[in-house]
Amino acid sequence: MPRLTEGLQDVVRTHMIFSPTNRRMIEANQANACNLCHVEKPIDWTLTHLKNWYPDAVPNYSETRIAANYPHRDGSVAVGWVKGKNEFTRMVAADALARAGAKWALPVIIDQLDDPYVVNRQFTQKALDEMLGIDIRDFGYRFYMSSDERREPLKQLRSELLKKYSESDKNAADSKPGI
To answer: Which of 38, 53, 106, 135 is 20 to 30 A removed from 95 (C-alpha atoms)?
Structure first.
């Protein structure tokens, strides 16, 4: 079961069962079970695998909608979600990237700490703490801070964390398009 539901303090598994080939979900660039685990994969990888696994169930997706909603077809779908307009999809994507240990995606995950929605910042802070084994509060960051109050802690977080993890994960970052 994919983690798609906002719980009290975490993104939790949904009990709603739906087809992974759902046309509206795929065409709208909403969180799908394939890319919640395979966070580094592009949409064309997902579409190919869905066609291979469910040859009789996959609808003919609208190429126009796919092209419009996936502007970076060769990039990570999850990174696109984090940069998207839908606040819930951004939260789920940041959680999925952190659960996958996607240090190559740290720039966009850290950007989520400045999301306009406080719950997104809260969940991203928790996810990053767990992913990196740190306490982001040590950098002076609190998810409930105003935008102005977050500015300096985020600058410090970006500087220190990106420097620390860019060297150790350079090869992985170079192989992940879409950042």
So the answer is: 53
